Amino acid sequence: MRFPVRFVALLLILAVVLYPLVWMVGTSLKSPSEIVNNIGLIPREFTPANFTDGWTKFDVSFGRFFLNSALVSLLTVAGNTISCLLAAYALGRLRFRLRGVWFAVMIGTLLLPGHVLIIPQYILFRSLGWVGGEWPYLPLLVPAFLATEAFFVFLIVQFMRGIPRELDEAAVIDGASAYSIFRHVILPLSRPALVTTAIFSFIWTWNDFFRQLVFLSELKDYTAPVALTLFIDSTSESAVGPMFAMSLLSLIPVFLFFVAFQRLLVEGINTSGLKG
Amino acid sequence: MEPITRAGTPAQRTTRRRLLAAALTVPLLLGAAACGGDDDGGSGGGTELSVFWWGAEKRAELTDKALALYSQKHPGVTFKKTWQGNQGYFDKLATLTAGGNAPDIFQLDDNYISEYAARGVTLDLTEYTGNGKLDVSKFPESLLKYGEVDGKLAGVALGENTQGLVYDKTLLKKNNLPEPKTGMSWEDFISWAADVSKKSKLPGTQDPSAVYQALWVFLRQNGKDLYAGKQLGFDEADITKWFALWKGARDKGATPTPDVIHEGNASDVSKQLVATGKAGTSWVWANQMPELKKSTDNELGLIAYPGDTSAQWARASMYMSAFRGSKHKDIAVDVINFLANDPEAGQILGTDRGLPPNLDVRKQVAATVEDPNMKQTIAVMDELGKKYGPNAPTVPPQGHSKVRSELIRVAEEVIYGRQTPEQGAAAFVAAAKAAIGAS
Amino acid sequence: MTASTLTPAPVAPAAAQPGRRVRRRRENLAGYVFLSPWLLGLLGITAIPMLISLYLSFTDYSPLIPLTEANWIGLENYRRMFTADQSYWHAVQVTVTFALVAVPLKLAAALGVALLLNRTMRGISVFRGLFYLPSLLGGSVALAIVWVSMFNRDGAFNSFLALFGIEGLPWVNDPDWALSTLILLAVWQFGAPMVIFLAGLKQVPTELYEAASVDGASPWRKFVHITLPMLSPVIFFNLVLETINGFQGFTSAFVLSNGTGGPVDSTLMYTLNLYIAGFVDLNMGYASAMAWVFLLVIGAITVVLFSTGRFWVHYSDNEER
């Protein structure tokens, strides 16, 4: 009895939540004048050409932009999960001097609105020779490997604090060092946090616009979100149809990434088996 | 995190803050110097210039072609081209400039040219016009002047436009309504629009209270101006008159409801009400008419803004400027000269940025234009051009973009009925004064 | 804590043992070893721009001039902000309203859907993905067009209302309602906290539920006495983060209002106002001052949240912070 209720509730919510996206699909199939004048769900005249036009509109095919985005996103995922996990283990589980201070500083770095940091960062990264160099993605990637995204550090800390302390205590009594506790106790139990970190890193990097816009200057290096803005210039007629088409396509990789990583969460972890 | 309580004599404080500034910036500058070699040309001894502009994909294609032609004529010079839509363009340009890394050549508009020129970002092109490296002899004089900031030529217009009123011909024909005419008075225009609303059930005109270039023309027709040097060229009474004029029009039903007016106040071409079919007339720039046409199946017509057309002027729709810190200033100027004056380049660029600035090139391009809407635009602009008054406005001062956004905010307060025209006028004058730093 | 009967009894901290000091020192060292990448990032990447922005907040810096040419103007930016800038206070008001309404609604939506989705059944990943889809859109240009089309006068929402004979308003273009559509957009994108809740739910030891079932506890009792306490660190995390995000809300306000905060400043969020000051009006010194005031205020709010957390957040590591 309870199952259908839950299921129906889910479907209803889902219908409301997804309606705008379905509308987007409809619009991606409309012709330019229909986009302006017909705001209904169904296009009067199907224009699948938006997809092919969007894909090939620029000198560099949209596939290249997706590849660039994938590269940047995957490397950011690697950087964030590794570096933030290490920092979170220190801040969440180890006792060392000034820990409270560092934790507060870490939270503090979350609080400053990013727009005032872009220019100092640009100046800094340029002085380090990272901007427009051989590898245009350095300014986007190096910070990820140095755990500058405090959000994830905080996230993993909070998850780690949910891991029963007696596990460490038991390991300590067995003579384990902080490193082996990390390796054998914390790491396996942190999977939900790491998967969550990976998912968010990927999605947010995939969608990040401002930093990528500022640091990338060559068409062939553009990522998908930067390339999407090439469709829209408010001073002339905009290619809304192709833009919608490419926006939808660019949802697919993130969606797949999400579903794939979600599986890792579904299996769950039964901490009880590990209790000493 | 407690920066506020600091003791010490002023001198001590000065020293301290100098030290602070130095401590923060010296490593950066050293770093910048250490890797400054990166900027020197490309491989093989050639010269690479960076060029940055906003626009749609079509503009990119045309500009690419024109630059390729330059490279072909000047082997050894290549370009690193960056373009994007105008959203985020000025954010990125400001960031690049802050990093001392502005492109050698970049596109500006009259919204920002004073900001860049006054802070010494743009190269003063005056001396290049003197020694013939930059040929401006075929430019309309007022258009050239419109690139001067504080007596320095900050940018070369790559396109000219002027105010244009675009109306929906099909709508009028369907309802047996007369077309509006260049030269009709503001009152006549409003009655015409009210008539259109009544007969066609579609609001006759967008309410232009928030459209700065309409206000500007209106002021000039009343012997005033938007700016007088670095001061405002109008007072509260003028603005009250303007807001009251349109309040009257709204009361007569000549304009759409406030929410639709707000929609049309977006600067996007594609959101103009004449294109979205939500009003009969939109207040735009003449050269935007062909773009508007792409969003609608209806026939469009183009006339000047109401009142005496000699109040309109040749405005630079876009400039190309060179970076004062460029390592290749002379070549940068030569490229700009090429884009503005070379007949072949002009033919390639066409009317994408506005009418070509060089009158010879313009004539040649006009002769080959095929798009009937662009033909109409050129005809109207030619006609208006003959009547432009002698005292064309100079380029707007620093703070102009703020004045524009304040006008939209205050005008909408009045449109939504939250302020009276008088209150709005007082608020706008105060805000505009603050924006340009006027007394 | 009410759940104490259901959760394992806390183990007393390990009693004094031989070699405790050595262990301390080792743990100290280990702490810094693990922290080192973050420290390097903090000192090399995060701190310098932050300090520069702090310095700039006392200057009239514009991005178009070299950093070193910024003029020191003391507390002028702060004075202007607090005494002379009406739009500043207006933005504060908009932001507080937004955060107070959007954050609880978004968290409730996220937790509700997460509970519904916390099931092992075939295709559940896809289901979760579908609920996450709106968040995947982020703040793209497409999103603005979509939202306007939903909530304009002739939008889908009003067509829906018309079914019940209600005549809708031009929500997005009505100064009295535009902020509500922005809030709704934030709630619609509840995917991120939902995923965090789901991950947190997975960490609740199943034997607690089993034990409670044996005791005959109702689902509601299980939720209140097991799920909520065990989930509290994650609820706390989401609350802190969404509060910070709520106050920082920029992207959706930016895309929906075309970067203006309109109509008539009704969606002028704090960070949007700050962005306009810095990048549109090119007064980055003033923007920096706004940013630092923001940091101090939100920092204070965060401290308050952390101190209340002590009373309701249940950590399995039995450690006070």
Automatic annotation (TrEMBL), chain A:
Cell compartments where the protein resides: Cell membrane
Source species of the chain: Paractinoplanes pyxinae
Bilayer disposition of the protein: Multi-pass membrane protein
Transmembrane segments: 7-26, 65-89, 101-125, 137-157, 185-206, 243-266
Family membership: Belongs to the binding-protein-dependent transport system permease family.
Domain ABC transmembrane type-1: 66-261
The keyword Transmembrane is assigned to this record: yes
Swiss-Prot/TrEMBL keywords: Cell membrane, Membrane, Transmembrane, Transmembrane helix, Transport
Protein name: Carbohydrate ABC transporter permease
TrEMBL record, chain B:
Designated name of the protein: Extracellular solute-binding protein
InterPro entries: Bact_solute-bd_prot1, SBP
Domain of life from the UniProt record: Bacteria
One family name in Pfam for this protein: SBP_bac_1
